[in-house]
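Q: I'm writing up a methods section and want to include an example of the input and output format. Could you take the sequence below and give the corresponding predicted structure tokens, formatted cleanly so I can copy it straight into the document?
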Amino acid sequence: MKNISLSPSGKEYQLPTDTESADELQELKRITDEQRKLGRKIVAVQGMGFVGCVMAAVVADSVDEKGKPLYFVHGQQRASLRSFWKVPVINQGIPPVSSSDAEVPEIFHRTIVEKKTLRATWLNYAYEVADIVVVDIQLDATKPAFGDASQGYCDLSAFRDGMKNLGKHISPECLILVETTVPPGTCENVVKPLIEEEFTKRGIDIAKNPPLIAHSYERVMPGAKYVSSIRDFWRVFSGVNEKSKDVAREFLNNILDTEKYPLTELDNTNASELSKVMENSYRATNIALTLEWAKCAEKIGVDIHKVRAAIRKRKGTHDNLLRPSLGVGGYCLTKDPVLANWAMGAIFHIDDKLKIAINSVDINDTMPLHTIDLIKEEYPELKDVKIAVLGVSYLENLGDTRHSPSETLIKFLNEYWAIVKTHDPYVEYWSEMENVPIEKSISDALIDADVVVFGVGHSQYKELEPDEVVAMTGKKPLIIDCSNFLADDKIKKYLQVGCKVKGVGKGHIGKLGR
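A: Here is the clean output for your methods example:
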């Protein structure tokens, strides 16, 4: 097997050799010494994923009252086949994520090329010299049975390995700040014992040097306000002891706009961890509610989106009613209720379940099947039906495909032997669906399509006119609007050119053609 890490753009990066690692170590030592002389603290961010890479840039961009950088950041990414490519890409001043937020490439260029306060590496030495380690490694939930999240669980083995690795390398004075969304109880019952165990093996007296561990969760939205959602937003935090809280508070005040968005300190890390998963469970439940009512609206000839808009006018109680769509995706809402439900038994040994939250996950996970039902109203037999799915990320105007509802949609369409083409302006390579090519142009995806599914509301798709879609398909395709993408005026245009149109929660469409 080649020791090649392949980037989403298809560029190959050779995994580092022993000689290159030795050279890298010397470079890290030189840089760290240089930064110490400048009076800067060293921060290591563990994991250069969707949160970690931008968090690293935000930390590296922070300055004191005189405008001088406060921190130097080592962005640590393991030299794995899957992810090593991020190291050389970041070190060129290029973000390893695709986003519609113009500030993302700006902050990477500013911190890496101009200020030189951020650099990526694959070596554990980054932890040895760190004053603070921010943990942003991925921790997922496993749902063995589709549509039954009650069986879901969390495999902590990789996360535990990451924490053990920190315990082997960090200094006793280093703060571990966990940003990864974890099951409630993780900092106290998993991280703390592991660090204590590794400290003890190293001869560190944990009575005199208790580990410094804090939890602070981000509310990142990797779209048009990607950077701002990390830097300019409210944060919740806590620590396993008072010193951990103090160090975390100082750090967060230094890197975030806490003057406009004050910190919320909770009693302990159990509370902070519970706050994150409960917050996201609330959103998941909110969406599941609207998905159920969307189906109802379709049956009785009502536009659920207009109903939702009317309800949201009631400020303070109903103005955060979320919208129905193809389904729910992303890293948070699809798993966080499962993490909490699993933790009740596995960590706290409580014989109880989070019934509403788990049922919401089931509704959201299976919602893409409703779009298939809409298609089958016109094409009962889907074999050889040509379907163009526009949008494979989980949210408009970004390239994050993790747990995308389009993935579920396409998997089931394939089971029906439909012929599926996809397009997404933000996705070049779909790592979760490697065998599904992403067409380079919209026209390539639409050629000869019997059905056009507007799965994600990317801005680029809003420019499409019905006559263009008809011209590119060469026929009058069935149009499926999954995310309230089409206003009534545009739906009427599709109807006028001979297309049939259906939409999630859009029971009123039949009346528009009269």
